[in-house]
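# nightly structure sweep
# worker-07 picked up a monomer target from the shared queue
# config: single-sequence mode, recycle default, output format = structure tokens
# input follows
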Amino acid sequence: MLRKIMTAAFALAVSATASASVINIGGVEFEPSGNNISSGQVFQELNPDGSFTTWGLIDETDYNCVGCELTFVASAAGGANVVGTKVDGGNVSNAYASFSLKVYVDYAENFSAGDSSKSEDGDLWLELAGHSTDLTDLGFAGVMGSFIGDLATINGNPIFLLGRGILDVVGGLAASNFDTDTQFDGSDLQTTVAFPNNSVTGGVVVSEGTGSFSGQSIPEPASIALLGLGLLGFAGAARRRKA
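# output follows
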């Protein structure tokens, strides 16, 4: 009988593990081992003072959103938030003290390439803030910042933009699944965006490109706790019957 109980317990544990292999947060399904969020469509407006707004639609290859869409908006202030600037010919690099990135799950599925507000009208799925670190090794001696933006120009015309930064999880439905402190300098996620298509309208650099956020997701703590309690219960029952 004890052997049958333990066999049943093992089968239940395997079943529970299999069912917990896919995480569902707010209708978004993804694997616990998922560590990359990519976006096939990213758009940006960069203002003369250095402030920018970036928005996009997240690829559903690894993050499946049935009947919904995952969108994001990233932004940073200009002015005093630009804590370092390097100029090399027609290339300019700005270091930013802080920036933010918010991911939304939107059941209206109304993403618009020309309207960033449509990328932030859903439920807040993941909220991140820039993780400040020493940027000396990246050419900004003694500067603390969380994001670097590079602009390459020819004859004053923008030909390529690149942005990269590190982030900490601060909120959202999926916060506990991405708050891992496993990335550079103890941050939670790293982000990179690249814009090969650029134009200037009224002094604003309007760009289109791609981007990604890389980190490490973890299973839902509740799922792990419930599975653990179940196994403890089986073990206790087995000991009592044996006694």
